[in-house]
Amino acid sequence: MHWADIFLLAFALSVDACVVSFSYGIKGLAKPFKSSILLALFTGFFQAAMPYLGGICTSCIRCYIEPYAKWIVFAIFLYLGINFIKESFEKKDSSRELTFTVLFLIAVATSIDAFSAGIPLTLKCTSICLPVLFIGLVTFVNSLTGFFCGRKFKNLNPKFLEIIGGCILILLAIKVII
Hints:
Layout: H1 3-25, H2 32-56, H3 62-88, H4 100-124, H5 129-152, H6 158-177
């Protein structure tokens, strides 16, 4: 594959991570810098790892995961979106932080589609290592960008923004199954 194609693929794969990071940016987390870095690291790592695994496991696992992949992503995004909306009605705790479980779920949900991208990368590239590292880097940058863009909107009505963030995640869930 040509590097322009790999960049377009990396950018397209990173959009979900950017949108989810935007949603968490408006959430008003206690340690925004730490949260943004953790989100970017988790999403970037998984976005790089999934195409690599997809390339390696093309014949082994694909037939088992592929029929359920969209439903797995749907369930995770739906859970996160509903949780966002539910938390918007709860009393705010200024020490809110992202847990490992939430980071893991976000990373998996935003990178399942990257698993399938490993197949053409494996077939078209001499080595899959550089393209997957590039995908991870682009996702890292887009995740940070999304988070800090979300932080710009943080000073608006937080309850409204958290509901919007939850709705964005629910719309992502719906988009996956349509």
